Amino acid sequence: MTVKNILSGESEYIEFKQEVPKKSEVYMKTVVAFANGSGGKIVFGVEDSTFKVVGINQEDAFSIMDGITSAICDSCTPMIAPIVTLASVEEKILIVVNIMPGSQRPYYLTAKGKENGTYIRVSGTTRPADSFVLKELEFEGVNRCFDQTYAAPVESVTEDEINCLCNKMYQYAVEHCRSEETAERIHRLTKQSLLSWGFLVKRGDNYFPTNAFLLMTCNLLPQATIQCAVFKGTDRDVFIDRREYDGDIVTQLDAAYEYVLRNINMSSEINGLYRTDVYELPTDCIREMICNAVVHRSYLHPSSIQVAVYDDRVEVTSPGMLFGSLRLKDIREGISIPRNRALVYAFTYMNIMEHWGSGIPRIIRRCKELGLEEPELVEIAGSFRINLFRFSDKTRVGKSTDKTVESTEKVRISTDKATGSTEKVRISTDKLSASHKKIIRYIEERGVITNKEVQNLLNVKDSRALKVLREMVDAGILKKEGKLRGSYYKLK
Length: 492
Prior knowledge:
With 492 residues, the chain is of the alpha+beta class. Helices cover 34% and strands 23% of the residues. The model is unreliable at 393-430 (pLDDT under 50).
């Protein structure tokens, strides 16, 4: 074995100690942190800063190993059973303490208690667990998910509310099918479906909503939002634009996705009489990144999802560390441990995501096919981040019949000049949400639409109708005319 062999794993899962400290607490915090995370190794006999191999006195090695094992077993609750072995590097003896990911979380130092003695690994360092992290570890320890937990003290839900959510999810699933044949095979959801997924819990004759039910409807969690921003350059010094989307998480996802499309470059391809948008980045990857953040984030974490557009990349940050014992290499290979099982069931049903664990490998594969730089996966400050890199001067991908790059903010409608037709041709309707498409079709048939007509068309309340209309105005699709109650909207 060599130092290179020892370092072959990811550094955040390895900690070096020159010698075994007299006070076991010095390394016991790391033992607890490894058990609460993805596991790891503590190597005694290597200088932490220089990686210089100094070794352990061979005559004392076995007694030291026994002392380490006893200290770990006696100091931690629940008990942690380490695997302690010897390794020979550069003709010197090292002691390697291997800590496996634990299943009885949270693990903590008995002497300090659960509240003060629970530790986690963050960016290669050992830190005390915040209260929301401790709560999530407790959920893991009993194999529960936050999204499948009763959203106390919310009152029971009515049959109408249950049916409304079932119909909403069914319509979304149908509208996002790739073919009519697939749409015909989609089954309608029932109350039993929501019970089995963990959207509802039954107590007596009443049905109570879980956190998943609320996230998909009224969304009472203040941290369950998506913050979007465009920055000048490659860092966060200067804002160009920023938005925050709330409401149900599916609406947020659609809004954040469309926000990114409005703020990245787009060229045009002409196929016959129609022009279609060709974005500089694969739109399916952008949507997958945001979807992963919505489904897999920690909803106990007090932060919002952040979607940032820079000159060189699109960055999506999801609150919460990788769940369970997952490591970055695991998710690259498609291994998944769902943090929010109910949401995974729902998003799969609605054709928002495909199979568990397939999202990240598909993004990496898609970028490789297009000649893009491989996306960057990062654990940072207790969150997970993925960077999708934009084209540089050295990278060019795809084919375009129109070299001119146009802003999606400006190009929405074109006219067929070749034939002299004045008919308006909608550009890239496949990139619009189902609600936007309905509104566009309505206006094309009737000329204009009012807020009240949008409410009836989409079966939404006044505030939601107004929000959708504002989005379309901001995107350059619609223009508002008239004032107050007499206002109406038409295609721009």
